[in-house]
Amino acid sequence: xxxxxxxxxxxxxxxxxxxxxxxxxxxxxxxxxxxxxxxxxxxxxxxxxxxxxxxxxxxxxxxxxxxxxxxxxxxxxxxxxxxxxxxxxxxxxxxxxxxxxxxxxxxxxxxxxxxxxxxxxxxxxxxxxxxxxxxxxxxxxxxxxxxxxxxxxxxxxxxxxxxxxxxxxxxxxxxxxxxxxxxxxxxxxxxxxxxxxxxxxxxxxxxxxxxxxxxxxxxxxxxxxxxxxxxxxxxxxxxxxxxxxxxxxxxxxxxxxxxxxxxxxxxxxxxxxxxxxxxxxxxxxxxxxxxxxxxxxxxxxxxxxxxxxxxxxxxxxxxxxxxxxxxxxxxxxxxxxxxxxxxxxxxxxxxxxxxxxxxxxxxxxxxxxxxxxxxxxxxxxxxxxxxxxxxxxxxxxxxxxxxxxxxxxxxxxxxxxxxxxxxxxxxxxxxxxxxxxxxxxxxxxxxxxxxxxxxxxxxxxxxxxxxxxxxxxxxxxxxxxxxxxxxxxxxxxxxxxxxxxxxxxxxxxxxxxxxxxxxxxxxxxxxxxxxxxxxxxxxxxxxxxxxxxxxxxxxxxxxxxxxxxxxxxxxxxxxxxxxxxxxxxxxxxxxxxxxxxxxxxxxxxxxxxxxxxxxxxxxxxxxxxxxxxxxxxxxxxxxxxxxxxxxxxxxxxxxxxxxxxxxxxxxxxxxxxxxxxxxxxxxxxxxxxxxxxxxxxxxxxxxxxxxxxxxxxxxxxxxxxxxxxxxxxxxxxxxxxxxxxxxxxxxxxxxxxxxxxxxxxxxxxxxxxxxxxxxxxxxxxxxxx
Amino acid sequence: xxxxxxxxxxxxxxxxxxxxxxxxxxxxxxxxxxxxxxxxxxxxxxxxxxxxxxxxxxxxxxxxxxxxxxxxxxxxxxxxxxxxxxxxxxxxxxxxxxxxxxxxxxxxxxxxxxxxxxxxxxxxxxxxxxxxxxxxxxxxx
Lengths: 785, 141
Hints:
The complex is a heterodimer of chains A (about 775) and B (about 140). By secondary structure, chain A is an alpha+beta fold. Chain A is built from 21 helices and 23 strands. Chain B has a single domain (about 15-140), classed as Rossmann fold (3-Layer(aba) Sandwich), CATH 3.40.50.2300.
């Protein structure tokens, strides 16, 4: 319809013109106006069509009238003007229209772009916002509101600092100041921000200056990412690393446990950790170890916990103990599943988690973690702590085993170090590996000297001693417990008796790997035992002497009683005959003679015994005077030869022999005794020789016979009391057994000596010496004075 | 000294006195001959064995302490040859232990010196009586 409008207008103008008969000059402005409007309103084609139509309308009247040629030319001119104008106008309009269309399409693009941007902003997984120079929130996307746990309405009333953890505020304020001043244009950091519920959220934040408003006030673009998940994972990873680090450290459980509990808190963002261990009788869990951050409330909670015993199955911990499954209460204010809930909340603790510590499939305790802030417990944390509980359990077992080993080792070490008995350990080459202090102090060596020189010497001595005894060197066929005593010198040169007892310690293949040698200083024992042996020996000798004495005494009694009874037999028998009467005078006389002889014999025996007793007890007095020993011998020989006709006497007397100093009667007794013995033990036809000579201040007297002789085993005893030669033919020769003993006593009382030489079957020679009288008297002078 | 005392009706009972002590020899000889026995003397152990085996006395009165072999050795040798020979040990070793020792060595009787003459006569009398009974029983057979 619109398109028809210009043509209608043209037609109307033509109609009016025609009707009025006005000239084309009049209609021309109208046509031009219509063309202009058409060009503005309608398309170019329509505009040009309109212009054509108007040109025709101009030309028609002159053509129809044809009366005035000038009108036609004017009309033609006007028509051309109309056409040209229309072309020009449409060109202009077209250009204008093009520009308008361009502007419109640009505006549409901008609008679409902004819409997309807004959608992107809202949909972004990062929090985005604009804040003003003071940090006040201007625009905030949803994500940021979620991160901060606050509504978008609430935020514009707050600043960035308001939602930032107190600890992080100073650094934030400083950064904002720098950004405001333009010193920096971008700042990045990790901060903790505080949610409306008080919980904290770790974020990665980037703040950049944004284009300002017209007012000139600067804006900051804030970008925040919730990194709590990453932080948790990092924490879990770091925690596992820390736990494993502790577990492989070889620390004892007691040393490791604070590090473990501290690590759990630090890396997993808990504030307090307690290790609850089951009693020996598994009646209750009790706190054995704890760790917490500094806070008064935590200490109170810890102390309360230490007073607590938790039975199996009771409360959260009791169930963890019973079931071996991790349990947690994320917000104690909402769930009342925790027996010490009130206590914990009073201490400012709001989240709790407990995981079992498992050793060899048995829950031996639980670790309880508490946090002041309300924190969620993700599955991966539960999984990780379950694993950690098993590893910690294994560690406890290893630690207990290691502790038992260490204790055992320490005990043995203490025995080794403190033993009063020396202990050395040697390797299979016989080299000294270790030596306890007792050995070193015993031998007064330091270890190095001991190892280098003293030990090889000792070992050689040991092998030698062992070799002699059992052909078993220390390291070859060492039999356990076999010991050897050796002589060894200390560094100071003191000789000790050492008792070495070796024990080989086999390696896993049963080959002797080490030998332990116990070294005891048995010097005192050895010396004591030597002394004891000596004492025993002397006691034995004394006993033997006593026995011999006793035997001698018995023998003496036997001999004496035999002699007495033999003599008494005659005395008693013949006196009985005489008493009974009826005898001849001759008989009586003869029997009286027998009786007298035997009585005399008894008297002599008694005299000898008394003499000897006096001499031995030192009660015999000596009369000292000058004695001519040759004279004594001559007299004795004369006396003896009168009674005995079967023996010949010889004298070999030194005529220059000086006189001697002595008791004449006693010397006579000596000589008589020896001569009588010689006669008694000589067979018929025997020869007894008496000789004297001077020898170095002594007179040497010898009485030699050709009699029976004295057997070698008896010759040493002839001067002992009651030692009569009783073997063979000598057995029956009567005597008191005291004669030679008395002789020896008398000679020794004079300061002389007596000895005997003898050969069985050839005879005996008794020699004795008597000191000469004072030297100033010449023997010859004195003799021949 | 008379060598024998032949008494009618009796076989001579001969006593060997072995003793090295001449006083003892004389005493025994005097007493036993007086009692009606024949006495022969040996002065030491070896002589005692010789006489005992060669002359076969009725009994022996044996001293112990004698030259050569002692009385006990002599007794052992004699008993080895003539087990039935009565031997009385007459010794001045007269402690109780000695008596036991002699009996254990085979003595039929022990006479301690010094002795009562009556004891000597009684002991010899016992053996003489025993011998007589034996001879009678032999005769009876």
